[in-house]
Amino acid sequence: MKARAYLKLFRIDHGIMYGFGVLVGIFIAAKNLPLEEALFGFLTAVFLQSSTFALNDYFDYEVDLANKRLDRPLVTGEISRKEALLSGIFLFPLGLIFSYLISPLAFVFALLISLLGILYDLKLKEFGLIGNAYIATTMAAPFLFGGIIVERLNEAIILLSALAFISGLGREIMKSIEDVEGDKIRNAKTVAILYGEEFAAKISALLFILAASLSFLALLFPEFQDIKYLIPVLACDSILLLSAFKLLRGVKREEIYSLRKRTMSAMALGMLAFLLGVI
């Protein structure tokens, strides 16, 4: 079905997770969930992320072909490049409209992240680590955006955003191992291409270990000194550490996809831990 292909194009699961990240950021900052701001924040994240992914697939078509990304609907022919481009262009202003309805500051933040996303699709991705850092920033952005919505950025949001950035950077460097062949087409200077796949795996593993270690800093805050935080965060850390050990022992390219799924699940558990900690 065409609708299912579009959901794959938009990576709707990622968009919804980003939307929930905004809600978590709002709740951590304000200890409540103002309905209108929460709805507009959620829709901003979903629409802008969907737009970004559609445009990414449009610009990365040749790369995805080379990497045999059969999870991409453009590669399988379910959606044309023109359709991907038009859908990305259509969703972009929708997300910005909802951010503007929140506040001028929310609009500026959303616009800046989105413009960097377009720059990433056009050129930034070719700069390897810089491109990885941008993607990692987008994983931290929902929590910061939630704090911006209620005009309150506290220590817990800063820590959660930092953990999301570190984990996200690890995931992106790990992904560069899987994408070596396609990245060579774009002449991308990724860690895996410049220094080798084994080195990229080690750096990724170290970042996962760092994120797991830093998660215990939350225990400095009274609201997180609770079993509600400890159980999900220990589950998150276990997945990150097991993934790190797998990378350190040696990993094949075809195993990266499953590790990406696992580490995304770990990040979702980490987000849940912070949410439960403040309830």
UniProtKB/TrEMBL annotation:
One of its GO terms (cellular component) is plasma membrane. The keyword Membrane applies. InterPro entries: Prenyltransferase_related (IPR050475), UbiA_prenyltransferase (IPR000537), UbiA_sf (IPR044878). GO terms for molecular function: transferase activity, transferring alkyl or aryl (other than methyl) groups. PANTHER family: CHLOROPHYLL SYNTHASE, CHLOROPHYLL SYNTHASE, CHLOROPLASTIC. It is found in: Cell membrane. It comes from Ferroglobus placidus (strain DSM 10642 / AEDII12DO). The keyword Transmembrane helix applies. Its main location: membrane. It is a multi-pass membrane protein. The chain crosses the membrane at residues 12-30, 90-120, 127-150, 156-174, 199-221. Keywords: Membrane, Transferase, Transmembrane, Transmembrane helix. This is UbiA prenyltransferase.
